[in-house]
Amino acid sequence: MIGLKVLAACGLDAVLGDPRWLPHPVRLIGLLIQWYEYLAIRCCRGRVGQYIVGVILALGLPTLCYASAQWVIHIAGQFHDHIGSIVWILLGYTTLAARDLFDHAIRVYHALQAGALGEAQAAVSYIVGRDTENLSEPEVVRATIETVAESTSDGIIAPLFYLAVGGPPLALAYKAINTLDSMIGHRSIKYRYFGWASARFDDVLNWVPARMTGVLFVLASSLWLKSGAHAWRIFLRDGSKHSSPNSGWPEAAMAGGLHVQLGGTNFYNGTRLDYQLMGDDCHPLMPRQILHAVQLMIVASSLAGSLFVGILCL
């Protein structure tokens, strides 16, 4: 039964994506983080105080999300078992982001195909944190591919993993930590202490899904692009090169599968950051590589969904 619920949640995500008119728990989580940050930074300015309020947030918000989802599903089930199942599916669907990632990446691809570099720069700015206004076409392609690789891990495989393990409550708790990391888990002066706990918890929760995503990209590369051996070699060779303990594994596997080179120089609010290179520079970074990256994302996500649903239906 749980396997069918997971399948239904995946189906809703594939069909609906993330329409902006639909209330979404992650947007509510973002508002809660902003509210807490406003109060916490005003009240606690010292290093120790920032650590403490950061740990409270990193523990408290996912706990609140877990308990709230559990309560909502329980209350819905009191009316009827079917209503409880529908709420389970709807909440589970909100934790997945495959369709949204697909739509954003394809929007960048179409803009590049039309020769509208400015439009592509604007489109990619919605899915990356780096400065995009001065990116060349190959850099827009690289930014898109890197985001597809990383977001497949923390936007699809990880929530699907936690949805299968603990249902919507655990998946929403994961999304809370992941949202915390994206909003305050930066190594900036502002968030160095306040966001430390959120960043570390996100590293822990993504350890298994990130490596699982890399392996799934290798399998997808074997099935779709016939480049599985190269993807596996680059996955093992370059997966640990990224400054993040997790992001490098899916990115390295993606680079190997596409026979391209990722990493290099990015600018964030005008500040230059240099990342180690991953993959071999066999093919140029051209718009069609975005299509191939999206195809690998779809195949890898389908493999993961089939695996989890199959296990849960046993």
Description:
This protein has 314 residues and is mainly α. It has one domain. It contains twelve helices and two strands; from the N terminus they run H-H-H-H-H-H-H-H-H-H-H-E-E-H. Strand 1 and strand 2 form a beta hairpin. The mean pLDDT is 94.
Kindly list the characteristics that best describe this protein.
single chain; 314 residues; two-stranded antiparallel sheet
Q: What class do helices, strands and sheet pairing give?
A: mainly alpha
Radius of gyration (CA) equals: 20 Å
Can you summarize the main beta sheet? 2 strands, antiparallel
Numbering strands along the chain, what is their spatial order in the largest sheet?
1-2
- Percent range for β-strand residues: under 5%
* Terminal Cα span: 10 Å
By DSSP, the count of extended strands is 2
What is the succession of H and E elements? HHHHHHHHHHHEEH
Q: How many distinct helices?
A: 12
